[in-house]
Design goal:
With 373 residues, the protein is α/β, with parallel strands linked by helices. The chain is built from twelve helices and 16 strands. The protein has a five-stranded parallel beta sheet. Strands 7-6-8-9 form a four-stranded parallel beta sheet, sandwiched between helices. Strands 10-14-15-16 form a four-stranded antiparallel beta sheet, with helices on one face. Helix 5 runs parallel beside helix 6 and helix 11 packs across helix 12. The longest helix has 28 residues.
Length: 373
């Protein structure tokens, strides 16, 4: 009897050991995202205010294909730097692993995320050199250093322009574009006839425009957000200024054109080289939301893909260093915006092309095609 009991005990003990081994082997062979802790991604975006169309479109994009193991936490910056910093402090309470910043607050947050060692992806952010300020910061958007030379090359090769006036927003973003534009103009044998600045609170640009027009420029280059560029152009028209106008790519959206009352017609700009939205993205977007996805939704969807790629090698506990290594290694990734590769500094580079607003549409001067945006 005792022998039978002993055999039974040993038999069950053997079964238990086998089950434990099966579980251990199963965990080791499973993909990291199946057993790692949940990765928390904080998103700061303008979900209300005059830039809400950007934030809401982006939000739908980044939520489109969120993988298992990733949770999103949203805070509204309202397009305001101070509110973006406040939003970051709220997200820190959630113990986020990764931060995404859309627009306002990009530069102000860099020292904070650097101190807290939180990998951060900036977008709708164009001030030159931002990722170089911290190993934790990446950018997925155009910037002055990559954008302005494309504009300048088109001007030199195709437009009869020798003297250019500049009107720019007086912040780091505007100053960055102005500085690079001045250097590129000098390098290409052109003269800056004058430069005027304005503030976010500005509503009247006529004084700056009048001063620039007195310098008799062949063209005026405008640096600002879409609604600022539109108001500047409307007031230039009221003043009877007929020179050529150039502007950064904030105007290259269907929304901006719809708000411009025709004043964007004939304005030269630079924007992503893609002339339309990938069919696969639009099919996924329409299936989920029942409508077409906008340009910023494409950006959001791409950032989800980058986060997913950079997270695949994560173990049971999130590693910021491992996340950074994976994101730096991105090469020739087929994104919604085209082929994307990371620089050693963390610029997720997007190809930019010269474009013009023509027939109330965005016309790609490199491909000879109208964009669908």
């Amino acid at each position: 009897m005792e022998n039978n009991k002993a055999k039974t005990v040993w038999r069950w003990l053997g079964i238990a050991i086998i089950l434990i081994l099966i579980i251990i082997i199963g965990i080791k062979n499973s993909s990291p995202e199946k057993y790692r802790e949940q990765i928390k991604v904080g998103v700061i975006a303008p979900l209300s205010g005059n830039q809400a169309f950007i934030g809401q479109d982006f939000k739908e994009g980044i939520e489109l294909s969120v993988p298992n193991g990733v949770s999103l936490f949203f805070e509204d910056s309202q397009g305001d730097i101070a509110k973006a910093v406040s939003a970051y402090n709220k997200l820190k309470l959630e113990k986020i692993d990764v931060l995404v910043v859309v627009g306002a607050g990009d530069e102000a947050l860099i020292p904070l995320v650097d101190k807290d060692k939180i990998p951060t992806i900036l977008t709708v952010s164009s001030t030159g050199g931002l990722p170089a300020k911290s190993k934790y910061v990446f950018r997925y958007f155009t910037n002055a250093d990559s954008d302005v030379p494309v504009m300048m090359k088109y001007i030199k090769d195709n437009l009869d322009v020798k003297k250019i006036g500049i009107i720019n927003i007086q912040d780091n973003y505007g100053i960055s574009y102005k500085g690079v534009f001045e250097k590129e103009a000098e390098r290409n044998g052109m003269v800056i006839s004058g430069a005027e600045q304005y503030f976010y609170s500005s509503l009247d640009y006529k004084t700056q425009l009048t001063k620039l027009n007195q310098t008799k420029p062949d063209a005026i280059y405008i640096v600002g957000l879409d609604y600022q560029v539109i108001q500047i152009l409307k007031q230039a028209k009221q003043l009877g200024i007929t020179t050529k106008f150039l502007a950064i790519g904030t105007i290259a959206t269907g929304y901006a054109i719809s708000q411009a009352d025709g004043t964007l017609e004939g304005v030269y700009t630079t924007a992503f080289c893609t002339d339309g939205s990938p069919l696969s993205f639009q099919e996924r977007f329409k299936t989920k939301y029942g409508k077409a996805g906008g340009f910023f939704a494409e950006i959001g969807d791409d950032i989800t893909s980058f986060i997913n790629m950079a997270s695949k090698s994560q173990g049971a506990k999130f590693s910021a260093d491992r996340f950074i290594e994976e994101l730096i290694s991105v090469k020739n990734y087929a994104a919604n915006t085209g082929s994307v590769s990371s620089t050693p500094e963390g610029e997720l580079m997007i190809e930019v092309c010269p474009k013009v607003i023509k027939d109330s549409k965005i016309y790609n001067l490199s491909t000879g095609k109208y964009s669908q945006y």
